[in-house]
Amino acid sequence: MMKGIKLGVPIFLIVFSGLFLISSLQLPKANMGNPNAPLYFPAGLSILMLLLSFVYLFQELKHVAEENKELRQLFSGRTPKLLVTTLGSGVIYALVFDQIGFLLSTILFLGGLLFFINGWKKWLINCIVAVSFSFLTWYAFSQLLGVSLP
Amino acid sequence: MDVNSFMEGLSIAVQPVNIVWIIIGGFLGTIVGMLPGLGPATAVAVLIPMTFGMNPVSAIILMAAIYYGAMYGGSRSSILLNTPGDGSAIAATFDGYPMARKGMAGQALAISAVASFIGGLIAVVGFVFLAEPLATFALEFGPAEYFLLMLLTLSAIVSLSIGKMVKGFLAMTIGLALSTVGIDTQTGVYRFTLGSSHLSEGIDFLIVIIGVYAIGEVLYNLLSIDEQRNEKKKVGKVWFSKEQWRRSKWPILRSGPLGFIIGVLPGAGGSIASMISYTTERQLSKKSSEFGDGAVEGLAAPESANNSASVGAMIPLLTMGIPGSGTTAVMLGALIMLGLRPGPLLFDQQPETAWALINSMFIGNIALVIINILLVGVLVKVLDTPPKVLYPMIVVLAFIGTYTLSYTTFDFFFLLLFGVIGLFMKVLDFPIAPLVLALIVGSDMEQNFRMALSSSNGSFGIFFSSGVSIGLIALTLLSLLYPLIVHWMKRKVQNRPEDQMYRSS
Where in this chain does the record put each DUF112 domain (chain B) (predicted)? Predict the structure, then answer.
């Protein structure tokens, strides 16, 4: 897995810069001035990125066997679950934010994260923090700072 | 210096409402800046939304106070937890943390606050005299010079990440690539919008900033969340002895101007300033063997340099619109958001805003030293908040901040995407500042590049046509050679604490 990521990232960057180069060259022509003006900068940039990605790939090939503690942590213990849950609940939050309103969605989102990260045993503190922090931010932003929240 | 504008700025800055904002901003900035695992850039990023909806002058004053507060806060966690918030606070761990371990945390916090205060004041005086001449000088810059100046800033910031230059330049190209998304302002051509109307205005860099810094750092901290323990910290007496002051005063006074000058240079900033001042003081000291083991001047000197550099870094930011570090890049983003375009014309067109900001630095520094000494108890209590409760709250703040930028939940997905990118960048040891900086200056850089070329009918000779541009090219080349110079110096001097700093900055 570690090797996969170590080499996967530079390969992804190579593909990405390749695609970026192709789509730069296919940019529509400008109607005024030099018709190619909009594409020079991104095209030059993507070539630079491509070169750098290859250098990065060769560098990684040399060090592929080296241990990266943080990369290992990424896949060990409950970390993958934590990351997926945090991101997943972020997505759900984004989907329900407008529907059920700021206050309710934030209490649920923050509460969910707290229960998951901080544990069920500390339910009292989780509930207090989720409700009071959500209310406090709602008050600060919508009442004091005049931000209109759903 | 225009005395009238200066006085007008002062009168704005001392309005009670603005003083209240300075105190609130300084306090909040200190708190978020000192939270373990979160640096000043994150602090500024998540607190920016507070300023929306305020009148622009108060908003800028509040933002500057958050910035300085965050810089102060960054070194609080260096001293108390041995975890610096960003590169510029690393030097504070060398002697600050050993002092705290010896039960002198209170004294360390006090001397560092006073040193930062004096360094900051020295720098503000320098600022008052240097800002306007520099702005006048920058007025003569054409598109070619601006392009080269931005190139220098980017290459300088990448070169500082010794040992990961390829990754630094990759991060930079990704940032520049992101900046090309949206309608091309010169020709109206839609670029890389993937057919989405939302992308036609480009990717909002504040969302990227909040994503990679705030969400990215929280996700990164989740990797080791179960290993993070809260150690109880004994603060002790919060003031320093006469002897400690005697040892520190000259290092503080020497490091202030040094830090200021380094801070003004593009790309250099607080990390280099605090490191150079630390090394210098160790060489000058008669008790150099105590350095690294809780020598008070080893804490005071870099703190003074670091804070004066953070004021110095505001000069290129305000007079040329060029940020020198991740945190100042975030500041630039925020200023643009408030409709204020930093650059040479700022002092011409909005002198009272510029001078109000400069004067607020004076007041901000005074407020911060008081906050940091009187409220040590409260600040230490904040550090006792378990990270498992803290990080979810930061996530919520990041989401709210994003919402206030565009009032659409569409951007939440971008926020999460850039959070994941930030996480992987940290895990794979990519420097983040070049990405953020490149994204912010990218579109200006391209426009200046194209304007320069069209004014010369496509000839690249325009980039070598003035003394300033040749000087900028020379400096860019020098910055690219900088890692080689450091490598050479490192082989001469080995196994010293600042080597660690090179690696981690």
Answer: 19-437
**Residue A147 near chain B (CB below 8 Å):** yes
Q: What pLDDT does residue B503 have?
A: 44
- Of A70, A71, A142, which to mutate for an interface test with B (greatest number of B Cβ within 10 Å)? A70
- Name the pLDDT band for B62 (thresholds 50, 70, 90): confident
Answer whether residue A149 is part of any domain: no
Residue B494's region, left for phi above 0, alpha for psi from -120 to 50, else beta, is beta
- Give yes or no: residues A62 and A105 share one domain: no
Percent of chain B with pLDDT over 70: 94
Please answer yes or no on whether B166 and A31 come within 8 Å at the CB atom.
no
**With a cut of 0.85, is the ipTM above it?**
yes
Instruction: Tell me how close the Cα of A64 comes to any Cα of chain B, in angstroms.
Output: 12
Is B200 an 8 Å CB contact of chain A? no
> What's the pLDDT score for residue A120?
86
Phi, psi of B190 (to 5 degrees): -80, 130
- Can you tell me the distance from the alpha carbon of B170 to that of B162, in angstroms, rounded to the nearest whole number? 14
Are residues A99 and A64 both part of a single domain?
no
pLDDT of residue B291: 86
Q: Tell me which of A74, A93, A127 is where a domain ends.
A: A74
Q: How many CB pairs under 8 A join A and B?
A: 164
Residues of chain A contacting B184 with CB distance shorter than 8 Å? 30, 38
Q: And the tokens for B363?
A: 């007041």
Distance of CA B438 to CAs A68, B8, B486, Å?
27, 35, 24
CA distance B421 to B416: 9
Nearest by CB: A77 against B189, B226, B424: B226
Mark whether A86 and A130 lie in a shared domain. yes
| A150 located within any domain | no
What's the distance, CA B343 to chain centroid? 18
Q: Does A149 touch chain B (CB under 8 A)?
A: yes
**Domain count across chain A:** 2
**B170 pLDDT higher than 90:** yes
- Among residues A33, A55, A74, the one where a domain terminates is A74
- Residues A50, A98, single domain; the answer is no
Give the Cα separation of A47 and A43 in Å (integer). 6
Write the pLDDT tens digit of every residue in A88-139: 999 999 999 999 989 999 999 999 999 998 888 888 989 999 999 999 888 8
> How do residues A29-65 score in pLDDT, each as one tens digit?
887 777 888 888 999 999 999 999 999 999 989 888 8
Domain span at A100: 79-144
- Contact criterion met (CB < 8 Å) for B396 and A49: no
Nearest CB neighbour to A74, from listed B173, B174, B427: B427
Shared domain for A17 and A67, answered yes or no, is yes
